[in-house]
Amino acid sequence: MITNEQMDVLFSQARKAAQMAYAVYSKFRVGAALLCEDGSIVTGVNVENRSFGLTVCAERNAVFTGVGQGKRKFTALAISTPDSVEPVGPCGACRQVLSEFMPPDAPVRFAGSGQDKVDSTIGELLPYDSLYDLADK
Ligand code: THU
Asked: Is 94 in the pocket of ligand 1 (CB under 6 A)?
C-alpha cells in the first residue's frame, strides 16, 4: 500500500527531474519518477531532437533507465509538467510501455504548476488492456 506521503515524495522527485528535461523545441518540460519494488526511485525526462519524431517522453525514459538498472517492477508513478498549469497525463504510447512493468492497481499522480493534481492508476489510464495476460509479470 503506497501512502499519500510516498506519493508526495515521488512527485517532488518528478518535479526536480523535470528541471533536467531537454525540451528546447516544445519548451514543455516533463519529469517522471517511478517507485521501484526495493523502495528506490528512478527518474526520467523528455529528450527532444531536431528530427522531431525521435523525441522520447519522460515516462519511457524513466522505465528504460530502471530496466537498465535491473528493475522489473514499478509500484507507483508521478509525473510533473511544470510548464502547464493543469495536470497532463502520460501519452498513449507511454501508457502501453508503463503497463508492461506496472500492475493495473499501481497509483499514478500527475500535476502541473497549479494546485490541481490527478490521482489515478495504471489500469484506469489503460483500460481494457487486452494483452495484459501476455505480460511477463
Ligand atoms: N511528453 C512527455 O514527456 N510525456 C508525455 O506523456 C507527453 C509528452 C513530452 C514530449 C515532448 O518533448 C513534449 O512533452 C511536448 O509534447
From this structure: yes
Phi then psi for residue 13, to 5 deg, are -70, -40
Q: Which of 15, 19, 27, 46 to mutate to test the pocket of ligand 1 (most atoms within 8 A of CB)?
A: 46
The reply to whether 48 belongs to the active site is no
What are 8-47's pLDDT values in tens digits?
999 999 999 999 999 999 999 999 999 999 999 999 999 9
Query: What's the pLDDT score for residue 48?
Result: 98
Q: Determine if the pTM surpasses 0.85.
A: yes
- Residue 80 C-alpha cell reads as 510533473
Residue 21 near residue 43, CB atoms below 8 Å:
no
| Distance from the alpha carbon of residue 59 to the mean position of ligand 1, in angstroms | 9
Q: Which residues pair with 74 in a beta bridge?
A: 36
For the chain, domains (ranges, CATH) are 4-134 (3.40.140.10)
57 lines ligand 1 (CB under 6 A): yes
